[in-house]
């Protein structure tokens, strides 16, 4: 039974608000710093009120080019990160849903062997196979390309496992009914399985988009040109060991711009994301 006493509700809301403030204050502080000049930031304490350099700082970062990253604007870095994150998310979902579909609904020799081979790759992250993977990218001329940034990160044993577990809950009567109606394998997949999997796809898209957006090691290795870098790599390059050499106002602008796309994806897909995680049929 749920306790609805006013005192407990007040305490619960107070704890929740306190937690939100703890999480949100660093982001607010970063935003405030992004609206002040470099001189103001280097003279602590930093004011807690936004400054008057908002348009100047954001325009310079987006379109003016930043010296420490080769004169590339943040707009280009945001584009690269968005392309990489979307391609990784879509590629992982596409490969995983087809793999799970084949394992669950088709009968062929060594079917489960192939599934367990896919599952075993969970123990082989990119960091373990990074040297042979990099060699393959060099041999195929995929350095400084979107294909080189995304292809090695598209396969996902976790997503394959999740789709397989969901497909196994689909009643056999539904499969038989589709077969009686004359639906072939692709029509069954497109008209029945795909609509039933939309919440799973939405939840995985959010998770994989953030996974692709926050990649650091692989983009660092596979890109040499500044205009092909991602925003996470650029943030590291912008920071020097000496405070005086770091354009902190532009760093703060880049930090704020870097967190906006993942937040936007989570907010826009929140309803589907939650449903995909908590639906009972999973």
Strand-helix topology:
Elements: H1 6-34, H2 38-42, H3 54-64, H4 74-105, H5 111-120, H6 130-139, H7 146-150, H8 157-167, H9 172-180, H10 185-196, H11 198-213, H12 217-222, H13 231-238, H14 248-268, H15 270-278
Helix pairs in contact: 1-14, 3-14, 4-8, 4-11, 11-15, 13-14
Membrane topology: Multi-pass membrane protein
Family: Belongs to the binding-protein-dependent transport system permease family.
Domain ABC transmembrane type-1: 78-269
Task: Please give a handful of descriptors for the protein shown.
MetI-like fold, mainly alpha, 282 residues, 0% strand
Q: Which CATH class?
A: Mainly Alpha
CATH T-level topology: MetI-like fold
Q: What Rg do the Cα atoms give?
A: 24 Å
Large-scale geometry? globular
Catalogue the unreliable spans: none
CATH superfamily: MetI-like
Q: Helix and strand string, N-terminal first?
A: HHHHHHHHHHHHHHH
The portion of residues assigned to helices is 55-70%
| DSSP helical segment count | 15
Query: Proportion of β residues?
Result: under 5%
Which sheet architecture does the biggest sheet show? none
Query: What is the total tally of β strands?
Result: 0
| Class computed from helices, strands and strand pairing | mainly alpha
CATH architecture: Orthogonal Bundle
Tell me the quaternary state: single chain
**Number of structurally distinct domains:** 1
Function: Part of the ABC transporter complex UgpBAEC involved in sn-glycerol-3-phosphate (G3P) import. Probably responsible for the translocation of the substrate across the membrane.
Pfam families: BPD_transp_1 (PF00528)
Subcellular location: Cell inner membrane; Cell membrane
InterPro entries: MetI-like, MetI-like_sf
């Amino acid at each position: 039974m749920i306790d609805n006493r006013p005192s407990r509700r007040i305490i619960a809301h107070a704890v929740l608000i306190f937690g939100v403030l703890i999480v949100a204050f660093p982001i607010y502080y970063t935003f405030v710093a992004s609206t002040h000049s470099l001189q103001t930031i280097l003279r602590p304490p930093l004011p807690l009120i936004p400054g008057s350099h908002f348009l100047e700082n954001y325009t310079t970062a987006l379109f003016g080019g930043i010296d420490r990253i080769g004169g590339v604007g943040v707009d280009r870095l945001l584009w690269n990160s968005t392309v990489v994150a979307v391609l990784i998310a879509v590629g992982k979902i596409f490969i995983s849903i087809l793999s799970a579909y084949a394992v669950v609904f088709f009968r062929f020799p060594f079917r489960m062997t192939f599934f367990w081979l896919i599952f075993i790759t969970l123990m082989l992250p990119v960091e373990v196979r990074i040297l042979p993977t990099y060699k393959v990218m060099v041999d195929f001329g995929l350095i400084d390309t979107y294909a080189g940034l995304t292809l090695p990160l598209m396969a996902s044993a976790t997503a394959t496992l999740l789709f397989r577990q969901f497909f196994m809950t689909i009643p056999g009567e539904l499969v038989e009914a589709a077969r009686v109606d004359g639906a072939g394998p692709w029509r069954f997949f497109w008209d029945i399985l795909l609509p039933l999997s939309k919440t799973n796809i939405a939840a995985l898209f959010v998770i994989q988009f953030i996974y692709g957006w926050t990649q650091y090691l692989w983009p660092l290795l596979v890109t040499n040109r500044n205009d092909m870098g991602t925003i996470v790599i650029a943030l590291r390059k912008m920071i020097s060991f000496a405070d005086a050499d770091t354009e902190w106002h532009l760093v703060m602008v880049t930090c704020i711009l870097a967190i906006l796309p993942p937040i936007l994806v989570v907010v826009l897909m929140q309803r589907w994301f939650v449903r995909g995680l908590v639906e009972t049929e999973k």
